[in-house]
Design a protein that fits this description.
The strands form four sheets. Strands 3, 4, 5, 6, 7, 10 and 11 form a seven-stranded mixed β-sheet that branches. This protein is globular. It has a domain of about 260 residues: Butyryl-CoA Dehydrogenase, subunit A, domain 3 (Up-down Bundle), CATH 1.20.140. Helix content is about 55%, strand content about 15%. It starts with 6 loop residues before the first helix and ends with a helix. Helix 3 runs antiparallel to helix 5, helix 6 crosses helix 9 and helix 11 packs antiparallel against helix 12. It is of the alpha+beta class.
Length: about 575
């Protein structure tokens, strides 16, 4: 079972489905030519396939451990991380002023996808750093930027985010970590944080934590939270690590998967930190990092879906049943593989469209692009991760009994990817965001996207009516569901939020498959895959949207007794 990074898939998507050229036409990203993209994707594919993918099983079988206060990573991870850092993974979208390449998020997204498919546990470390870089670029003082950004961009140092506490999960406003001001303008940070991905390790010379905390007298809830940069080692004036700060990992979580990624309980016992952004502006600053991470986590799901699909297809072509022919000859096996491949394409196109909108918003400042990026972020995160979970599940099923045997490695996909629907905001929270904040504009951003889907379906209707008509009809059903939601009280919207998001994603996926069919032809490989999606997966939107008008309905009446064994 060997992973091969899908370089050609990205080249097709970025030339024919979600054009990189649109981004490259802006002054901000004029260097992002197709030649640049091809060279970058080619090298990232080689690195993912040859250097990072061989570390996948080591991370699972030999987890990170905490020894004498130091986290020791899985065999080969330090060397793999160094290869990523030397290649410049953290630098792709970072500001050139501090050593970055200044290239579009579209390229970062493609590289993240390939590396997640190669080894999700290792890929998570620099993904966190990318988010921290963006937060510091946006909110940190010039002094902090000058000292920290070059080290983070080069990969010499890594970054984390510290939100969750034992009593404060999704309710971040309940956090208790304290920050007391010192005479020199720095702060003393005291408290405990849990679920800190890559909170400590031996792969880089410093670990820099972004920590949410409360200053004395701050108001309750999220309005009283500030953001602080708290390094493991206090930097000297020349930028080298100095004295050890008063923070430490006190334990590592024993997890279902992602064993190669240490998830730490971090203790801050009077650690020195520096304010990032405005006082009491911590949530605003942290959301910059979280929004970056939400797209990145969606892409993690897609990367795992790719790897699971490749492994299942390889097995289906080589596993001979009854001494006759490979199991790929069974219609049901082909059905499962087709679902895996078709959904991976759809989720990947949605993620790239989200990245394109982020790039266009940054390059132009256009509010419409900002709204498109905000709209697509919860969809990209949720559908990408659900696709990863479903593809991993189907991959085990294709393998049959061998999928349940750990030696094949395919069960690891299921265990590793499961958390992606939970961290960086659960998929339920993403759906609530979609039907809540993302509809505060009266549905304007949604309507614009639906109009584009229908316009394309109409444009190709004459030659592709058998596949364009279902897409057009589904987009109209989406429009009706959106209008129904808009008239529901927020509590009722939340009861239908997840079905609405999944139905929305189904229609978006059909739109991108239709574009592929229009580009390649109905009888091409992409055409046949697109027909499968439109004919067999798109109809699921009907059941999803049927739940919208129900709102919270019977959900509000169910008690604990109702849900217990009768």
């Amino acid at each position: 079972m060997a992973y091969s990074a899908p370089q050609s898939e990205f080249q097709f998507l970025m030339t024919s489905i979600v054009p990189l050229d649109l981004v490259a036409q802006t002054a901000r990203f004029a260097d992002a030519t197709q030649a640049t993209a091809q060279a970058m994707l080619s090298e990232a594919a080689r690195l993912s396939t040859e250097v990072i993918a061989p570390l996948q099983r080591a991370g699972d079988m030999h987890p990170a451990v905490l020894e004498n206060g130091v986290v020791r990573t899985s065999p080969g991870f330090a060397e793999g991380y160094r290869a990523l850092a030397d290649w410049g993974w953290n630098a792709i979208a970072a500001d050139p002023e501090h050593g970055g390449m200044g290239l579009p998020m579209m390229l970062t997204t493609a590289v993240n996808d390939m590396l997640a498919g190669a080894c999700l546990s290792l890929q998570l470390a620099p993904l966190m750093t990318q988010g921290q870089i963006e937060a510091l670029e946006t909110y940190a003082s010039d002094e902090i930027k000058a000292l920290y950004l070059p080290k983070l961009i080069s990969g010499e140092w890594t970054g984390t985010m510290n939100l969750t506490e034992p009593q404060a999960g999704s309710d971040v406003g309940a956090l208790r970590t304290k920050a007391d001001l010192l005479e020199d303008g720095s702060y003393v940070i005291s408290g405990q944080k849990i679920y800190i991905s890559w909170g400590d390790h031996d792969m880089a010379e410093n670990v820099c934590h972004l920590v949410l905390a409360r200053t004395p007298g701050a108001p309750d809830g999220t309005k009283g939270i500030s953001l602080f940069l708290v390094p493991k080692f206090l930097p000297k004036e020349d930028g080298t690590p100095g004295a050890r700060n008063d923070l430490r990992p006190v334990s590592l979580e024993h997890k279902m998967g992602l064993h190669g990624s240490p998830t730490a309980v971090m203790e801050y016992s009077g650690a020195k930190g520096w304010l990032v952004g405005d006082p009491l502006g911590g949530m605003k600053a942290m959301f910059t990092m979280m929004n970056n991470a939400r797209l990145g986590v969606g892409v993690q799901g897609i990367g795992v879906a790719e790897a699971a699909t490749q492994a299942a297809l390889d097995y289906a072509q080589t596993r001979v049943q009854g001494g006759k022919s490979p199991i790929l000859g069974h219609a049901d096996v082909r059905r499962m593989l087709a679902e895996m491949r078709a959904d991976t394409f759809a989720a990947r196109a949605i993620a790239l469209a989200c990245a394109q909108a982020i790039d266009m918003a940054q390059a132009t400042g256009d509010s419409n692009w900002k709204a498109r990026a905000a709209l697509l972020t919860p969809i990209a995160k949720s559908f990408g991760t659900e696709t990863g979970i479903r593809a991993a599940e189907l991959g085990v099923q294709v393998h049959g009994g061998m999928g349940f045997v750990e030696e094949t490695g395919v069960a690891q996909f299921s265990r590793d990817v499961r958390v992606t629907a939970i961290y960086e905001g659960t998929n339920g929270i993403q759906a609530m965001d979609l039907v809540g904040r993302k509809m505060l504009d009266g549905g304007e951003a949604m309507t614009s996207l639906i109009d584009e889907i229908e316009a394309h379906a109409e444009a190709v209707h004459g030659t592709l009516n058998e596949v364009s008509e279902p897409v057009w009809q589904a987009s109209e059903t989406l429009r009706e569901a959106m209008e129904t939601l808009a008239h529901l009280p927020m509590a009722d919207r939340f009861g239908a939020a997840v079905p609405f998001l999944m139905g929305f994603a189904r229609v978006l996926g059909a739109h991108y498959h239709l574009r592929a069919i229009a580009n390649e032809g109905v009888e091409s490989a992409r055409g046949r895959l697109g027909r499968f999606y439109i004919e067999r997966l798109l109809p699921q939107h009907v059941s999803y949207f049927a739940q919208v008008s129900l709102g919270s309905d019977v959900l509000d009446t169910l008690s604990a007794a109702d849900l217990a064994t009768q």
